[in-house]
Amino acid sequence: MRFATVRFARIIAIGGLCATMSACAWIEEPSSHFSDRQEAVDAEMFAKGWLPGWLPPSVKNMREKHNLDTSVSILRFEYAVSTDAPPFGDACVPTTREFVESPRLDAWWWPDTVTILSMPRLYDCRNESGYLAIPAEGGVAYFWRMSA
User: Fold this and answer.
1) For the chain, what is the radius of gyration of the CA atoms?
2) Which of 30, 71, 84, 109 lies in disulfide reach of 148, CB 3.0 to 4.6 Å?
3) Cβ(133)–Cβ(142) under 8 Å?
4) Taking Cα atoms as reference points, which of 91, 59, 75 lies closest to residue 145?
5) How far is C-alpha 39 from the geometric centre of its chain's CA atoms?
6) Are 30 and 65 in contact (CB under 8 A)?
């Protein structure tokens, strides 16, 4: 009987520890969704530096995740192909796969690293310490920052 009680207490403690660690990861790596630029502006995501200022005027359906300790981040967004053309100004310059660092975060909405690095349009966004990847069909883009 005593053995079962001790075992149950250990299971509860381990479960609590796992739940706490999961909660801590969520707190240190918050994720956000914004329907359009104005929502992101209202949330001060540009002012806080989590979103790059060069995002095109037509930007929509933004999903962002960042690490509060390391300042690395990932961002997926959609844009109007008819009005905005990558790399959306002069902040990013074309590059090749061998000069691109892999993203350091992951999310359910983020493609795997092989897919990202295989996209035909890759850009080095030096002023942002990050990279931009765009699939051949356009209309969606992936940006990741290696540091702030």
Assistant:
1) 19
2) 71
3) yes
4) 75
5) 17
6) yes
Q: How far apart are the first and last CA of the chain?
A: 55
Tokens of 4: 């079962």
State the Cα–Cα distance between residues 59 and 81, nearest whole angstrom. 10
Q: CA 95 from chain center: how many Å?
A: 20
What tokens were used for 37? 């630029």
Q: To 10 degrees, the CA torsion angle through 74, 44, 121, 61?
A: 90
Burial class (CB in 10 A: 0-12, 13-18, 19+), 77: buried
DSSP 108-141: TTSPPHHHHHT-SEEEEEGGGTEEEEE-TT-SEE
Closest C-alpha among 112, 114, 113, 110 to residue 141: 110
Residue 122 region by backbone torsions, left for phi larger than 0, else alpha for psi between -120 and 50, else beta: beta
